[in-house]
Each structure stands twice: as structure tokens, then as C-alpha cells.
Amino acid sequence: MSELKIESDIAAVIQTAIEKHGRNRDAFIPILSEINHVLGHVPGEAFREVRNQLNVMNGQAPVAESQLFGLASFYDMLSTKPRGRHVIKFCENAPCHVVGGKAVWDTLQETLNLKNDETTPDSKWTLVTTSCVGLCSVGPVLLIDDDVYGNVTPEQVSDILERYE
Ligand code: FES
């Protein structure tokens, strides 16, 4: 795909997201979420384009690219880097940690040969940590895409990963 085509696609995705969610500050996260959903991540060019489109005929104070990038970097659900077909989110908070989370995390990293926020060369897996997902009573907890796994042990890691194409 040519660079020009990618840029026009990004602009179209952003235009659609802005038409759907509006231009005020409450819309920033929904707009970025939609871009993330459609493109798989929020690419660098998108921040400039969102800023440009939001700042046209917007009665509010201008939006800065850095502000949008800050939001995309802060929220776990958004990624500024391309992600794999399957995203593993591992809860890193203390209640999961103290019931064996560290060993599960080490096994995940060793099995996939990934560190936090990395993607396998074949783009199958992305491994990231996440904050508490509210399932502390069944820790250690990991999520793969929309699937939730609780009471995970290091021995279960390979079996769980094999369920995904
Ligand atoms: S600390 Fe892991 S789910 Fe709450």
C-alpha cells in the first residue's frame, strides 16, 4: 500500500470517528479508541491528522498532538505501536503477584521470547501488563483478546497459548 493511500485511509477513519463522537474534549478517547479499533493501533501520523481535523472550525482551545499522544500512551486499551493478532494482558498488581503471578509472567515471557509491550516477529502475539482487572480473587489473571483466564499456573501457559491460531 502506498504511503499516500495509507494517509488518506487514516484521514478517512479519523473523519468518520469525529463525525460519530463529536469534537469536544470528551470525544478524544472515543475517537482514539475507534482509530485503534479500525487500524489495530494509533499510528504516529494519526495524532497530527486528529489535531488538524479537530482544530478546523473548532470553537475550543486548539488540541496539541502531544496531548493526544499522552492519552493514547496512558490507556491500556490504546496502543501507539502495531500489535499482534492476539494481545495477552497480564495483571501485574500486587494481589495477583503474591499468589504466583511473577512465575506466570516469567513463563509467558520465556515461552514467547517477549518482554513487556513487545510483539512476536510473526505478529501473532503481543504481550503487555495491565493494572487490576477486578478479578483479584482468581489471580493470577491474564486476558487474551476477550478471553479471561484466572488461577493461572506456569504449567498451564503452553496449553492456553495453543488454543489460539
Ligand atoms: S490484582 Fe490482578 S485482577 Fe486484581
**CATH topology name of the largest domain:** Glutaredoxin
Count of separate DSSP helical elements: 6
What is the helix/strand order?
A: HHHHEHEEEEH
Structural class: alpha+beta
Unreliable stretches covering 5 or more consecutive residues? none
How much beta, percentage-wise? 5-15%
Number of domains: 2
Count the E strands: 5
Distance between the termini: 26 Å
* Biggest sheet: strand arrangement: 2-3-1-4-5
Looking at CATH, the homologous superfamily of the largest domain is Glutaredoxin
* CATH architecture label name of the largest domain: 3-Layer(aba) Sandwich
What compounds sit in this structure?
Answer: FE2/S2 (inorganic) cluster
Cα shape: elongated
Instruction: Profile the largest sheet.
Output: 5 strands, mixed
Average residue-wise pLDDT: 91
What's the quaternary structure here? single chain
